[in-house]
TrEMBL record:
Transmembrane segments annotated in the record for this chain: none
NCBIfam families linked to this entry: GRX_bact (TIGR02181)
Gene Ontology molecular function: glutathione disulfide oxidoreductase activity; protein-disulfide reductase activity
Name assigned to this protein: Glutaredoxin
Residues of the Glutaredoxin domain: 5-65
The organism of origin for this protein: Oxalobacter paraformigenes
Protein family per UniProt: Belongs to the glutaredoxin family.
Keyword vocabulary terms for this entry: Cytoplasm, Disulfide bond, Electron transport, Redox-active center, Transport
SUPFAM superfamilies: Thioredoxin-like
Record-linked CDD domains: GRX_GRXb_1_3_like
One Pfam family cited in the UniProt record for this chain: Glutaredoxin
Classification lineage: Bacteria, Pseudomonadati, Pseudomonadota, Betaproteobacteria, Burkholderiales
Amino acid sequence: MTARVVMYSTAVCPYCRMAEQLLKSRGVTDIEKILIDANENLRAEMIGKTNRRTVPQIFIGDTHVGGFDDLSALDKEGKLLPLLQSA
């Protein structure tokens, strides 16, 4: 079983789609997407939790991973699968 994955996203973000593809290729079947493009309250929530303004912002369990570049780097270091399995 993989960890709960939450991704703050927008409807037209190419990096969000790439992050989703990477996560699915690592066995994640369910990603809770929070679309912030039309909701300022959700955007403010994302900024408050991450101190970042760009999407995607990805959480695996309680761990804030960051954006696509951070997720990809974690995968290349071999740390993504253990995080998905342990969270």
